[in-house]
Amino acid sequence: MRAPIGDFDDARPAPDCLDLLTGPVAAAVRAWTGPVPADRLVYVDTDPAIADTAVFVEHYGPALLDESANCVVVAGRRGEMTTLAACLVKSATRVDVNGVVRKHLGARKASFAPMDTATGETGMEYGGITPIGLPADWPLLVDAAVVDTEWVLVGSGRRRGKLIVPGKAFAQLPGAVVLEGLGVPVG
Prior knowledge:
Blueprint: E1 11-13, H1 23-30, E2 42-44, H2 53-60, E3 69-78, E4 81-90, E5 93-95, H3 97-105, E6 109-112, H4 115-122, E7 140-143, H5 144-147, E8 151-155, E9 162-166, E10 176-179, E11 183-185
Parallel strand pairs: 4-7, 7-10
Antiparallel strand pairs: 1-2, 2-9, 3-4, 3-6, 5-11, 8-9
């Protein structure tokens, strides 16, 4: 199989690669339903040593910068209550944590969750967190620009490997809320 984007040597339908995914991600792919069939989720093997975005796109194709997204875990606090959520934005942008995220979560303060919280609560590796397989009760805030992208490269739950997913599929994930302006230009 050829990957729909990027220059990858090893691309396969994600349902054929469940053993290469973390438990939560494999379970989500196994249980996948909705208008985008599971076999349209593509797993590509990648070198974990070059997982960071700038080096990754240099190696696998510069066009991937506009076709990739980052998933980060945030913590919104109001009084004693903390709400964990995930945010999915295009890689060339940053999450508007103190604006859009804070307001959407109804939090007084919002920040990126500590690494051990993000990995412990998701069951995924830091640097590979993906919106597929997140805890079902979490809000998943998705920038509209991600949904409007034909194919999107995201983490696979591990630093090794990525998933290529039709952008519109992110709107069908549990807890997904599509928001304009969630991702803001860097700089």
